[in-house]
Amino acid sequence: MKYLISSVIILTCLAVAKFLTALLESSFPAPLLGMVLLLVLLLTGLVKEQHLKPTASPLLNYMPLFFIPAGVGIIEHLGLISQNWTLLLTIFIVVPLTSVLLIGAVIAYFKGRENDS
Amino acid sequence: MTVSLWWLCVPCIIALFLVLRFLNAKTQHATAKALSNPVCWAIVLTAALLVAFKLPYEPFAEHSKVLSWLLEPAIVALALPLYQQFIHVKKNLLLILISCSLGVINATLVASLICYFFAAPAQLSASLASLSVTTPITLLVTESLGGIPSLAAAMVIFIGVLGAIFGNLIFSLINIRNAQAKGVAIGTACHAIGTASLISDQPKAGAFASVAMALSALLSAIIVPILYPVIQHVLV
What we know:
The complex is a heterodimer.
Chain A: H1 2-23, H2 30-43, H3 49-61, H4 63-66, H5 68-72, H6 78-83, H7 85-111
Helix pairs in contact in A: 1-2, 1-3
Chain B: H1 9-26, H2 30-35, H3 38-52, H4 57-63, H5 65-77, H6 79-86, H7 93-117, H8 122-127, H9 135-145, H10 149-173, H11 179-201, H12 203-235
């Protein structure tokens, strides 16, 4: 029964999100809208954490499994990757480095460099 | 291999992933743990197998659809950790929110600029616009931008491994020891794999990283689809 309730909550959010994105002809990903809807339901207290856990916990625990097929799709683009490997390598290093430096500097500015514990 | 053997995809992926996850759980050293990331290796090994046996991707995707379908409800379920993290950090929420937004904007902006200088094709720059976020979200955002979701996912996973290995070195080089600064920076830029590397030996930074990871998932979903077309419009 508890599995049924939590599954229904998750699937309802997903269905409503799909309906809304289809209605508005938006390219916004429906599962993300569903996530936001569910977050609002949790924050307003309409859905309680324990109602959600029975299905949400195993789904989250095995989530990496669900995007393995999508990741394997990379084999269709090996040509594009080998043609642009310098670009990909540059982005691979520069993007996370600048983000880490920027965020580290901003927070260190407000909170100090030393450990605040 | 005959066509009739395609049904083996799903059981093989599950078995491979569980074995890799088990081996990863056994590793103690932080760097070894990051390098033996089970998702990364499951994708690499499966892809290598398909390429080695000259198997096409399409029937593979067709027969492993069950797993891809489950991704949608799993993303909806991400609201739960997001909610659990929100109630923890009310006090610091504004600063973390601003930092995460800056990180997400920076990632999209820097990637777009680099693509511009390299004169990269549009499909490629769309694939690299959403890298400061957890893998399932990047798949969706990249698809909505017209990029290649699997390429974005691979980049995100590799960036996570990079952050897990070199994160601490960077912080000691720029002399930052504040747990909140470290955590939010790694959580936003290097998401789950970076965060996992912090949790074991720096629990306080790890907690901030979890919050930042959850927030950047939400922020990326909102910011990137709006920001990316604007940047492209300005650059072109």
